[in-house]
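Office hours follow-up: a student asked to see two folded examples consecutively, so here they are.
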Amino acid sequence: MPRATTRRRFLTSTGTAAAAAAVAPQVQAAAARNRPNVVVLIVDTLRADHVYGDRAQTPNMDSLVRAGLRFTRCYPEAMPTVPARNSIFTGRRMFPFTGWFDRPGLIESPGWAPFHHVEATFTSALNRAGYFTAYVTDNPFFGFARGYRRHRRSFDRFIGKGGQLGTVAPLSSVSSKELRHWVHPATVERNTYLRMRQYLANGDYWRAETRSWSARVYSAAARLLDDAKTRQPFAMVVDTYEPHEPWTPPRKYLNRYGDPDYHGPEPAKPRYARVSYLNGYDAPFLLRRMHALYAAELTMTDHWIGVFLDRLHRLALDRNTVIVLIGDHGFQFGDHGWTGKIAAELHPPLTHVPLVIVHPEGRKAGGASTYFASTHDIGPTVLAMCDVRAPDRMNGVNLAPLFHGKRPRERNYAYGGYANYFYIRSDDWALMGDNRPGGLRLFDVRRDPAEVRNVASSHPGTVDALLGQVLTRTGGRLPLYPH
């Protein structure tokens, strides 16, 4: 077991990196020698209010918040899983998803497509600058889909931990009793039992959390640090699919959030639907139970992040490492009347994610920024902190000036989209709708922070101005694809 988080220290003195990898050209090695290492932690389905707030216990993520600069208004410009990661790796806006068509091995939804310019990712740029690069993930798309093969091969070391999707273990290994325990009757829809049986067979971690995907990913990444230490500077992306649903956490985590005396069927895989599907059941209880399952899964994931961070600290690598924590999207637990990830409901429970950047010299430790940050800012920022030129294709903002008391390029809005829907947010307003554009809804976020009252009809000028910003910045027209 790792040492307790309270014993972990993020040292603030600047260290000197070890010699660059022998395979790098001598001139690159000389330039790279004094550059910091990079660790980017991508956590799937990570709501900001569960890291910055008290809705879940995340002591290891909290340690990063204390050590770094947190961005209180980070909104992914493209969602969900694949579009968000495209944005992170390329440092480039993915929305709107112009020219999209369905690809094998990916979900048939706008934005789910591999990026073409693998040489223009931030990790490829660091590799050319003499960095040893590594990617550790259980993401079923980035880790295994054919379209991302070139991306995986762009790293010096790729470690894929599969299992959450696909068949790894025989379905017969899951008993009917276990299956009924993790499927609540209210959540059953087509293929629910098959999907859950497959999931349970591949990762029966409710009995032993070392079998969880977060344990597999972060343990592998922790072991890889020993090799990375000898090949500094290094850049490592650790990308876990947990706490993406279904949620089947060990009881020791679940009992922190839910009734320990409850042993009935669990709503481990909610529908992506209006909460009316819970009619006829105790809907408030089931929504609370869904949240308890998610929070438990998140706390378990945080524990294994701690395993990795402890190893980083024991090897004294935190002295000279830029650390980034980022989520790709959130999840709705009855928020605005829905459960799941609903593309039409681009409110903060889905669109607001944590972004924390830890400077190796401890600059801005424990600080907060209200700058409208987004996923495509990570690449330019990391490269700037490593003194590596960003590829010309990157159009994200370099956030590094904030560590020196300066402002990045002005950005008065956060905007982006999910499938056939868009959103835009300013200090005062939030507008969302579909890409026709239609179904426009406007919220006064200062007077109505919960975004309950649609005031579009009484503020047509504001609607036109915000929509105009989106259309101007996206080329004048949003693509609309058949459902």
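And the second, which I mentioned at the end of office hours:
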Amino acid sequence: MAHVELRGVVKKFGDVLAVDRVDISAEQKEFVVLLGPSGCGKTTCLRMIAGLETITEGEIYIAGRKVNDILPKDRDIAMVFQNYALYPHMSVYKNMALGLQLQKFPKDEIKERVEAAAEILEITELLNRKPMALSGGQRQRVAIGRTIVRDPQVFLFDEPLSNLDAKLRSQMRIELAKLHRKIGKSIIYVTHDQIEAMTLADRIVIMNKGKVMQMGKPMEIYNNPANLFVAGFIGSPTMNLLDVKIMEDGGKITLAGDCFMLEAPPDLASRCMPYKEKKAVLGIRPNHICQAGMDLECEGKPQVELEVEVVEPVGSEIVIDTSCGKDQFTACIDPRSTVKVGDKLMFTIDLSQIHLFDAESGKGI
């Protein structure tokens, strides 16, 4: 049995179905990220694990023990909230020690645990300060420290970095990864930020409208999205999704868009046979489209003429938005390119990297 497991969990708020028969698991010492847009049910799942929301149907297990009817304080979990939830009138030390004091731990043990957690988080020099004298990143470390001192079986994080600026958020991602290695406990982490998910997770659970869309290792999901939602949600810039018709021409399977026709590679062609003459959605990531003549890896690959509409230099690459008839393409091209708005240029598409989805069900073909 997994260390934390949700089995067929349902949550309704009146007539609103917030979580729809969700199965999620986290192994011991695993870092699992619940990822999805606002309102997808990820925070509700976290709160049900914590015992802060009741379960309408299903079962939740922690370390093999069913916890549906067990109070939050008895579940041996600790939760870090988005807004830190620190007591402003207390010092950092007292904020971190309070939970242990309420549990009647000896003073010497409380001091030892707080100082050990402070050392792990590199906030020892802040122990006598109050939260108002701290930066956002420092407050977040204190909130995490307050959970570490309790030494729970499971850590729950609810979008803990969303209030930080971009640079600090990047730094804190590194710190959280280090922390996970040090404490060696299961972490279930909620975010809508796919960069956080991709960089922190051992496994990602992608949710939408209360359902699990896909669960797997970050690169497995990135390289093999199970459906249209996952394909469009994971990746930055997002995957190009283009309407095509699957056609057979002279024994070959072709994918016909508004102004292009591509021959499907053999492995994809065989999967397309049941879909002949049907509509589908072709997916290709921007980094698998390149400007013809700029990269040797692009040589010999199918070409499409595209008109450049937007140019965004971002340093290591240039992100461009282009069009071809009704089709819109985003591409990440060589930063040495002199491309400009209005240019009509040839671009190559790496057919070995295309994805195809059923237009009706959204499932991968």
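Two things to take away from it. The radius of gyration is 25 Å. DSSP finds nine helices and 20 strands in the chain.
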